[in-house]
Amino acid sequence: MKFATLASCFERLNVTSSRNDMTALLARLLAGASPDEIGIVCYFTLGAIAPGYSGLTPGIGERTAAAAIALAGSVDPAAVEAAARELGDYGDAAARLTVAPPEGSTGPLRVTDVHRGFMEIARASGPGSADRKTRVLAAMLAAATPPERRYLVRLATGEMRLGVGDMTLLDALAEAFLGSKAERPPLEHAYNISSDVGLVARTLQESGLAGVSAIPVTLHHPIRPMLTQRVSRISEIPERIGSRVIAVEEKYDGERVQAHKDGDDVTLFSRRLTDVTHQYPDIVRHIRRCVTADTAILDGEAVAFDHETGTYRPFQTLMRRRRKHRVREVAGEIPATYRVFDLLYVNGESYLRRSYPDRRARLEEVLSPDEKISPADRTLTGDLDGITEFYLACIERGLEGVVCKSCAEDSFYRAGAREWQWIKWKSDYGTELADTLDLVVVGANAGRGKRAGTYGSVLCAAYNHEEDIFQTVCGMGTGFTDADLADLPRRFAGVRVDRQPARVMVTPQAVPDFWFAPARVVEVLGLEITESPVHTCNWDPEWRRGLALRFPRFVRWRDEKSPEAATTTAEVAAMFRRRREG
């Protein structure tokens, strides 16, 4: 496949406002890819060059991109930077260049050529690596057409802006090879346990559904985490879970970490499935020492814990460990404890289809706890009193709350799913909401007065998993400090787009001054959920109204969350329904 074919499809996707049209375009593209191309096409469409967990990214910043564009076009880098400022995008600046094909050119770029080039860039390291990256990118740009140059640069800088989500891509694969996007569920399951859409695509093309169904859990390939549901009142938990026995676990204000152990080889993955092994050398050390199984996959939470005072420290403290330098020194200043609440794989066997009690029992067999690593504290109960008593004890110890889990025979670990078998409860007093919402920022309005020069408010949306779209739920302008406001343009620079993204549903009344590709997640506290003709969350086309969050207030950014892990429209609807009924 010529890279020009891919770039042409991307150009059409950029101006497509319908998700169905987007899916159809992608299905035709994927159907025309060869087995050695289809995985690459999937990665490129998502703005990547490899599975996210691999850590392979071009790692090219604006300065290197400008240097490569200038080298390809034999122009001054300052002229490239000026064009990028004018156009708002280095990809558009590259497309504007007039470039003569290099001498000895072997013909048009192919998708596989581009992938090889980006893999060379991603693997370049050490002295002179920046120069090597510049030269490889410049060579590809010199051989490219204007549309190709636009997407080469956007891939290089990680700012693709197509707005295609994982589920839309899986829909397109189902449509291309199974005849209908209704056939997505088995593809989604395979993706949830492999976290590699390229692998799913290649397997589907070569071996059909039988091959996809046989994709195994693999060490050092993260499993997409199971997520919790929420309720409006603690009294709803026993009925919702529907299990005679309920496990009530501590809920921590830390970072979700999935640990893969293969002998002494340990890899840690974040909630977004990125490799965070370097951040937690102390946790790696204790997993090697305390997990007795030869191979295992654990799910748990890294938390900052002060052993001198016996108290947990807030999430923001732990995030200071997100640095590449002085890691061991900072680890000494901010020691982390790993609280393990699940076992997904052990000694070559997947435990995803084992019940929660079986998984927990096996976890306790293979984990020899110490002060740095231990199973999450819990109690077993069958009634509301037991849940409430343990919850209050957790609050007293400075924890966020509890997670209640089903102990039924079918209490399997459902990778990537948000199920009623896990329910969290944490109460923010002084508000009618039982919890904050994690929303996706999809737009912003220009600041005025004291906020001139930045954004005055942001447009926030919930995620509709069934349709793989984002539906607006509020505009938010309160809760930001002056520093937060000043930082907004930088935070959204890489995701600002010229038109409404195809996966964002908005009413005319809520159209913002600026659009953002769905990428950044924010934690929001509000007063209540109400019906609204302005916002599209759970939109009713007959009554022409949706649901909105009243008096939203900024709490913090949730950089560790992907947009698809945000609060769902179904959760918002459930919160509204229970408030109305209660």
Automatic annotation (TrEMBL):
Its cofactor is Mg(2+). It is an enzyme of class 6 (ligase). Residues 340-464 form the ATP-dependent DNA ligase family profile domain. It comes from the Archaea. Its EC number is 6.5.1.1. The keyword Metal-binding applies. It catalyses: ATP + (deoxyribonucleotide)n-3'-hydroxyl + 5'-phospho-(deoxyribonucleotide)m = (deoxyribonucleotide)n+m + AMP + diphosphate. The active site is at K251. ATP binds at E249, R256, R271, E301, F341, R418, K424. GO terms for biological process: cell division; DNA biosynthetic process; DNA recombination; DNA repair; lagging strand elongation. The keyword ATP-binding applies. Gene3D superfamilies: DNA ligase, ATP-dependent, N-terminal domain, DNA ligase/mRNA capping enzyme, Nucleic acid-binding proteins. One of its GO terms (molecular function) is metal ion binding. DNA ligase that seals nicks in double-stranded DNA during DNA replication, DNA recombination and DNA repair. PANTHER family: DNA LIGASE 1, DNA LIGASE 1/3 FAMILY MEMBER. NCBIfam families: dnl1. Belongs to the ATP-dependent DNA ligase family. This is DNA ligase. It comes from Methanoculleus bourgensis (strain ATCC 43281 / DSM 3045 / OCM 15 / MS2).
